[in-house]
Amino acid sequence: MLLDGLFAPLEFEFMRNALAIAFLMGILGAVVGSYLIVQQMGMIGDVISHAVLPGVSIAFFLDLNLSIGAFISGILSALVMAAIRIQSRIKVDTAMALTLPTFLGIGVILISVLKTNRVDLSHILFGDILGVRQADVLQILIITLIILVLNQLFYKELQFYTFDPLGAKACGLPVNLMYFGLVCAITLTIVASMQTVGALLVMSLLVGPAITAYLLVKELYQMMILGSVFGIFSGISGMYLSYYLDIPSGPAIVIVVFISFVLALLFSPTQGILTAKKNNLRKAL
């Protein structure tokens, strides 16, 4: 009976494509998100996820691939934030607070001015994983492989930069280039996630599995591996919940991500709320 429940959705091509996307996004989000968490850059992903709208509008107007427009717009927003932070005394969180509504407003204006009202904002903001095609799966597979290969090749340098940016700069590492590379990775992840949970919920995949793993392990590479497990589990479980409960797929995935985090927060052997109290009580006795 259980096996029938597991294999029944696989009879449909749209479910097979959706599950493949969820699997890949679980890995991609956890790897990139681990760097965000350690560097305390979580909100930059939120800014970029909102800043893709102008690029999507222009790409739709020019009849280009929407992913190209979203990627360019996301990169531009990150460069604007970096320029504000470097060229002034304004802190990065303030630069983010200014950049996010600015790019979002520009996107809404462009939709109106360019008469691109056919742009489906609901799909951009909330995703449409059940509408993905095999070409979308291939695109995300390529993005995931590129990120994993680059991460493997430059892991030591990225780890050094992540934990000690000043030390990395003093040792002669190209920290600006590494920052730009991380921004590109974040933007690619967000562009890929637009098909799954959408731009508004993408932070869940970027941050949720990574911080869940952060509560359970100490090393960066362990965060990536365990976070990928949580990401894959959340994506696939969310899809099955969506299928059987007839609920939106993106929010279903997000809910599973949050439940996984809450369980880790409560029962983590070293940092869990409940287990920490027990350990403190044992020490007191």
Category by helix and strand content: mainly alpha
Average pLDDT taken over every residue: 83
DSSP summary: helix tally: 15
The helix/strand series, from N terminus to C terminus, equals HHHHHHHHHHHHHHH
CATH class: Mainly Alpha
Whole-number tally of structural domains: 1
Q: How far is the first residue's CA from the last residue's CA? A: 49 Å
Please name the fourth-level CATH homologous superfamily: ABC transporter involved in vitamin B12 uptake, BtuC
Strand percentage: under 5%
Biggest β-sheet description = none
Number of strands: 0
Shape: globular
Membrane topology: Multi-pass membrane protein
Family: Belongs to the ABC-3 integral membrane protein family.
Subcellular location: Cell membrane; Membrane
Pfam families: ABC-3 (PF00950)
Which labels suit this protein?
mainly alpha, ABC transporter involved in vitamin B12 uptake, BtuC
Your description of this structure?
By secondary structure, the protein is an all-alpha fold. It has one domain: ABC transporter involved in vitamin B12 uptake, BtuC, CATH 1.10.3470.10. Helix content is 79%, strand content 0%. The chain has 15 helices and no strands. α2 crosses α12, α4 packs antiparallel against α5 and α5 runs antiparallel to α6. The radius of gyration is 20 Å and the shape is globular. 39% of the residues are buried.
